[in-house]
Amino acid sequence: MAAKLGRNDPCWCGSGKKYKTCHEAFDERIAKYAMAGHKVPEHKMIKNADQIAGIRQSAKINIAVLDYIAEHIHEGMSTLEIDRMVYEQTTAMGGMPAPLNYDGYPYSVCTSVNEQVCHGFPSDKVILKEGDIVNVDCSTVLNGYYSDSSRMYCIGKVSPEKQRLVDVTRECVQKGVEEVKPWGFMGDMGQAVHDHAFANGYTVVREIGGHGVGVQFHEDPWISYNSVRGTEMLLVPGMVFTIEPMVNMGKVEIYIDKKNDWEVYTQDGLPSAQWEVTVLVTEDGHEIISW
After folding, report:
1. What is the pTM of this model?
2. Residue 111 in contact with residue 155, Cβ under 8 Å?
3. What b-and-e string marks burial along 79-111, b requiring 16 or more CB atoms within 10 Å of the CB?
């Protein structure tokens, strides 16, 4: 990384400082991990101060939109109404819903109900009823910076089994976040998520994971929650990524709706839950940027 950059050249991070006083020692430390056989991040995965500030501003909108959904979601409304609320609230605050037209996705948000794992299409035919659990996955772009998070909402009184799934999935995210620290590994986080889910009798979706985010909607690295401590990518200050395990009440197998090639369901028809946060690796730990 940056092997050809002179010590007196401007640093690659855009700080304006000389490389030798900015990121030279940082790069040398990363290089030692690479020589030991570990996966290490490229410079493009490491955000500078201006980029982090932009992501935080985007996240303010994303958080506010999910807060608004929490206040207004109710039994009897359609998931298409949620989509309209997300679009209206996001644009009113100066942002744009990042999912809209992303790779052909036709809505402003994903609304995944009960056995839907993710990427659920909002629809005027899907009416929320008491006992449903629904994931609302919201992403915002503001001035070219992206934020991403999702929450579970319980409609009315849900069964103890569904409530436990929702609660344990949130605990999985919390367990994962606790493992995010500089010079640790992505696998430390992944195993913490996996172990907590399986200890409670659940499975964690393998095919779909988290991702880097910030200057693009989806960036490297791809992130697994079925990983092993001490493996996967090295975590360094400035990395921004999502923690968003999809936890199934039943078996791990999933399938994608062939009609739209987007909506994902559990193979056994049992419920799935997901919470998502965006996390920044800091010099001494982590910061949750969007939730």
Report:
1. 0.95
2. no
3. bbbbbebbbebbeeeebbbbbbeeeebebbbbb
